[in-house]
Amino acid sequence: MRRLALFDLDNTLVDRAAGLRLWAQEFRASHGLRADDVEWIVKADGDGLVPKETFFAQIKERYSLAEPVAELWAQYRRRHPALIPAFPGALAGLARLRRQDWLVGLVTNGLADVQLATITSSGVAGHVHGWAISGAENARKPERRLFEIAAERCGTTLAGGGWMIGDSAAADMAGGRAAGLRTVWIDRGRPWLHDIPGPDHTAADAAEAMAILLRS
Asked: Does 180 lie in the same domain as 98?
């Protein structure tokens, strides 16, 4: 059976933070804000964990903007995905896995249109066999069903095991383990401080994680 590797998207294969900073710089320029407002906007985003309605309500209030929160959110939703790059070495690593006969897929939480735009704009779409996006599947990591859908899209099942690579302890590591997969945690410089079993391996980035898989 061909080996399966499932990857998270944001902050694993693609640099969401870099895309956010580019968007914040564009937003600052278009609204005549100060240069240091970029840092406030990046911090207010909370690494993507702050609900967007809250995020844009804060922006609207802070800068006394005329646009409704819904319009600010819609503009961001159209633009931000186009600015998110793949991490250095990520696409080359995916291509190498495929040359070594791995089945490669994505398991990502998020809105279907936003995540699909990110997958295609970053170039990731051309390097994977399939993907499962929570917003399109009515299932969300760490639920096993989303992992099952991703495996099916890659032409296989979870029965043969495989790997899950991602930066979230709960969604990716615990979810992947519950789905019967071995795990590689992208630590992003963070220590493991979670009250759940640790990953099988830890890596600084996706390129290092892929090297671990190729040695396995």
From this structure: yes
